[in-house]
Design a protein that fits this description.
The strands form 4 sheets. Strands 1-2-3-5-4 form a 5-stranded mixed β-barrel. It has a 5-stranded antiparallel sheet with strand order 8-7-6-9-10. With about 375 residues, the protein is α+β, with helices and mostly antiparallel strands. The chain folds into 4 domains: about 90 residues, Nucleic acid-binding proteins (OB fold (Dihydrolipoamide Acetyltransferase, E2P)); about 80 residues, Nucleic acid-binding proteins (OB fold (Dihydrolipoamide Acetyltransferase, E2P), Beta Barrel), CATH 2.40.50.140; about 70 residues, OB fold (Dihydrolipoamide Acetyltransferase, E2P), CATH 2.40.50.140; about 80 residues, Nucleic acid-binding proteins (OB fold (Dihydrolipoamide Acetyltransferase, E2P), Beta Barrel). The chain has 7 helices and 20 strands.
Length: about 375
């Protein structure tokens, strides 16, 4: 070979140095030897320690002819071949990935592999990082009482969680992540999107996150809406806890979306049949029904016939005798047999009578006695 040709060939050989990451092509792949073409005169050899263990697990996903990144361990061995590492290349690439995530403040996902009293251990490629307790999203504790920290952490093992990099020090091998920051950003983005997309009349599924005197808060997946006390049920509700509890998954109807104030009004009852809409199919004037006295007023007694359907026994329909207050005849909790004397579904009114039931039962008894007396006279019964 001419000197000029030798010189040109040397120029074409890539410059390699310890620690450099280069792309190579797998020329030979066997449990005894792995050869990688990295553009030098001879194929590089894989470090013998990587013919088993984690490196070999990586190689199981490759075949001869595939391109793979490798890290230069020694530019030249005793045999004149470069010695390369797959694991070192992966570690370097993973660190570069982490540093880019930190620079861009991007959110990523990683699997929780373990936990201790201080927080969670997560794996990002070949690297492991730590999520301190203070950086774990508080939502994990929502359905757990005090003292259940260990249970919360153990339940997260094996799950993927959203994270942000808050510390990345390659030399010290220190990686600290925050789930809380990632979830705050995710919820803000989700909230803005939901506010843009939610429309009155939409039906959504959410989780009850809080209860107060005037209603229940429901997380729709990034934004919380309120079910007012009056929208929980068609029946009278004194407190939201009578209908829902924290942690319940509920289907809700979107009543209103106030984009200026970032508020969403929801309803539970609008997805249930309105009891009075079916009254005429179930009840008729003259029909006898059973009901429970729910409250007394100076002008009569209110009686619940079924959930959501309440009627009134006017004071004049309680007794044939003159009374000054319903409490002289009935009390709250009494179960009564009544007759429907008026029905107005449009205005949700049902008139009931107690005295007419007594009159009917007395008439029926008198008729039965008369019939029995006639039978005895005519037939000798």
């Amino acid at each position: 070979m001419e000197p000029q040709e030798i010189y040109q060939e040397l120029l074409e050989i890539p410059h390699i140095a310890p620690g450099h990451i280069v792309k190579g092509v797998i020329v030979k792949l066997s449990p005894d030897e792995v050869l990688v073409d990295i553009g030098t005169k001879t194929e590089a050899i894989l470090h013998r320690k990587e013919l088993a263990g984690p490196a070999w697990e990586i190689l199981k996903n490759y075949k001869e002819g595939d391109e793979i990144p490798v890290c230069i361990i020694r530019p030249e061995s005793d045999t004149g071949q470069a010695v390369v590492s797959i694991l070192r290349a992966k570690v370097e690439n993973d660190w570069a990935y982490i540093e880019e995530l930190k620079r861009t403040k991007a959110t990523f996902e990683a699997e929780v592999v373990d936990y201790n009293k201080g927080g969670l251990l997560v794996k990002v490629g070949s690297l492991k990082g730590f999520v301190p307790l203070s950086q774990i999203d508080p939502s994990h504790y929502r359905n757990h009482k005090g003292g259940a920290r260990t249970k919360v952490l153990s339940e997260l093992v094996g799950q993927k969680i959203k994270l942000k990099v808050i510390e990345a020090e390659r030399e010290q091998g220190r990686l600290i992540f925050s789930e809380k920051l990632a979830m705050e950003e995710w919820r803000a983005e989700r909230k803005n999107r939901l506010l843009r997309e939610l429309q009155e009349g939409d039906i959504c599924v959410g989780t009850v996150t809080g209860i107060c005197e005037f209603g229940a808060f429901v997380d729709l997946g990034g934004i919380e809406g309120l079910i007012h006390l009056s929208e929980l049920s068609w029946t009278k509700v004194s407190h939201p806890s009578e209908v829902v509890k924290v942690g319940d998954e509920v289907e809700v109807y979107v009543l209103e979306v106030d984009k200026e104030r970032n508020r969403v009004s929801l309803s539970l009852k609008r997805l249930q049949p309105e009891p009075w809409s079916m009254v005429e199919e179930k009840y008729k004037v003259g029909q006898f029904v059973e009901g429970t006295v729910t409250r007394l007023t100076p002008f009569g007694a209110f009686v619940q016939i079924e959930e959501g359907i309440e009627g009134l026994i006017h004071i004049s329909e309680l007794s044939f005798q003159r009374i000054s207050h319903p409490k002289e005849v009935v009390k709250v909790g009494d179960v009564l047999r009544l007759q429907i004397i008026s029905l107005d579904p449009v205005h949700r009114r049902m008139g009931l009578s107690l005295k007419r039931v007594a009159e009917h039962e007395r008439s029926s008894e008198d008729w039965r006695k008369d019939y029995e007396e006639i039978s005895r006279r005519e037939y000798g019964g």
